[in-house]
Structures are given as structure tokens and as C-alpha cells.
Write the C-alpha cells for this entry.
Amino acid sequence: MEQVDVSPRRTLLDMNGYQWTVLFAAWLGWGFDVFDGLLFNYVAPNCVPTLLGLEIGSVAARSATLQWTGIMTSVLLIGWAVGGVVFGKVADRIGRTKTLMLTMLLYSIGTAACAFAPNIWVLLLFRIVASLGIGGEWAAGAAMVAEVVPEKRRVEAGALLYTSAPFGLFLATFITFQVTGVYFKDPAVSWRYVFLFGLIPAAAAFLVRLFVKEPERWKRVASGGHAKIAELFSPQYIRLTISGFCMAVTALIMWWSCNAFIPVVAKGLASREAQFLGLDAAAAEAMGQQWVRTATNSFNLGGLIGTLMTIPIAKYFGRKKMFFIYFLAAAASIMCAFGLNLEPHTRLYMYFPIGLSVFGVFGSFTYYLPELFPTRLRATGAGFTYNVGRLVAAFGPFLVGSIAAAGANALDSAMYVLFWVGVVPIVGLFLLPFVIETKGRELVDY
């Protein structure tokens, strides 16, 4: 009699096809989230002067760009925080999949509408609309992935989910370069076409609706009462809330302060180098675009590697020691990048170690924050602790932009302030006693 092999078939990371589909859907949502959120930063040097009636490339235009980049980024973070808290609660109430789809549609429409802004204030309004959806997407996606994948693969799945952030940044860099540098070279108009690409996530939202259903974990507790934000501050959950908030706010302040001004710093360094070499305006602009790509790609590549490195570090050393390693490395890399006397082009590559630490640590939040809270409160808790920190982080880009814009030399002023951003992860090290270790802990279902 023929013997039948009944041993379970090996699958990649012990996840079946549907679990990979869920991870991919959330991966797309978060990647396009970052893509839409950062498009303004890449077109700001042309967008801001155009809407303000200033000559692109002039001293006044550069100063206004610094200031408005800070304002827009800070407003984005505030809207992101509000959207994260509100839609985190919505995800616990109506479901992860529905919320993921709704938030993707919201930030797609808000970003695309920026292409038609007649002035800077209407642009600001559209950015607020987009930011609400951008903030809301994260909590729904992270909770959905944590609840669907196998317990022992939650760290791997969470880190893989966050690799979509470098993808979003790569895509934003690529599309901006292609649109503004290849297809539409008029800087006064090309930035509008860049914003139109914000509609891409709308198509992905419909794919989510077609192929992804609500997690069984959530459906089992969905009728057990609606989650309330006030519960996060009850004696039962207050330590968990403080733990998630302390780590998230530290990471958010340093990430946004560093990343928001990559185009400004890179273009400023290129402009100085072009003057030294005696290049004409066209050559100087081309050099500026290339240097922005170099700095951004260095930051993104470091972020991608750093994100994946959270897997072995978190599983072997635990979450608390992982935060210690990343914050220490972040402080060193930021202060070296903006404090040492480096060659202009060499400074661009210092964005790699910044990305490795400042960007990489975010690979942990997609599994650490969902681990802290029970299923009934998971999206609310993760959404609140991760996103409310943006209200504090919003002061970072605004402060950097305001001080840099007011300085006699905007580039040197920006780098001086960014150097002191290196103090933020040092403060994060002193917050580690408040961190709750979740290594080896299974998700709580109630």
C-alpha cells in the first residue's frame, strides 16, 4: 500500500498565501502612505516660490522654501497625529480592512488635489486632508498584520511591513526626478504633475477591498464593546501607553527633523560646490537634482538595511536593548554628519548611517506597539502612542525651518540646528527605564 506523506508543507516564514496577501496589502498601504506624505518635500524648492510669486532659485525663494517646508511638515505631522488617533479608534470599531481602504482613498485624493492649488494656503488645506488619511493608515495596517500572521513570525512580518517606507521614499525620489528632470522641465509647472501621482494608492485601495477580509482575532472581540482612548490612561494600561509613546516620540522627532530637509541640505551643498567650480545655472540645477538623489538614496538604503536588522536584534536581545542600540547609533551618526568638517559630497553619504539608525528603528514599531495592547484596544493603542508623538515631533521641522530661514547663511544654519537634533536620541536613552519588554509575549485576545 502506497504511503501518503501527511507532514505539513514548508512555507516561506511559516506563512500561507493569504497571510502574505494581507502583509502585501498593508505593505502597499504604508509605502504609498510615505510616498504621498513626502512628495511636497521634493518639490518644495519649485512649488513654494511659484505659489508665493518669487523667482525660483533666488535668495528669497530659498529662505521661503526653508520656512514653508518647516510649516508644511509640521502641519502634516499634526494632521497625521489627529488622523492616527481618530482612525485607530475607527479601526477597532469598524474593522482593520475597511479603515485601511478608507484612509488610502483619503490621502490619495488629498495629495492629488495639491496639483490644482492656486496659492500656498489652499495647498496647506489639501495637505491637511491628505495627512488625516496618512496618519490613519498605519494603525489599521499594523494591527491587521499582527493579528493575521503566526505568533512566532510577528517580528519578521512587522519589520517586512516597514520596508515599504524606504520603497515609498525611493518611489517619491524616482517620480520627482523623472517628472521634473525628464518629462516636464519647466520648474514652475512640473511640481503639479508630481502631485498627480498621489492618485496611485487609490487603485491599491480597491485591491485591498477585493482580497483582504477582517482578521478573525478582531471579529471575535468586535462585539465586546468599543475601545475608548481614555482606557489607555487607566491603571491597567497607563504603563503600556507611556512605554510606546516614549519610544515613538523620540524616533519621530529625529526622523522628521533629519528627513524633511534632505532636499534643502543637498541642494545647498550642490549650489556651493557649483559656485566653486564656476558652473552655469543649468549645470548647477542638474547637480542639485543629482545630489538630492544621492542623499535620499543613501538615507533610504540605510533605512532599509536598518529596518531588517531590527529582526535579529529584537529577537535575540529584546526590544529594550534594541532601542538602546539604535538611539546610541542615531546620536553618533547625526552629530558626525552635521558637526564634522566634511567635504560636501562626502556629507551626502553620511545620510547612510543616519538612515541605518534614525530610519531603521521604525522597523520595530510595527510589531512592538501592537504587542503592547489587547485586540479590542490594539489599533487605538498603537495609533495613539505612535501618532500622538507627532504633535511633539511637529515642532522639530518647524524649528529647523524657522531658524535656518532666518540665518544669514541658510545652509550653515540648517546644519547647525540639525547637529543639535542629535541630542534627541540621547534623551531617548534616558527614557528606556519606562520601556516595557515584550520579547516572547503572545498577543492578548480580549
User: Anything to note?
Assistant: Residues 17-434 form a domain with the Growth Hormone; Chain: A; fold (CATH 1.20.1250.20).
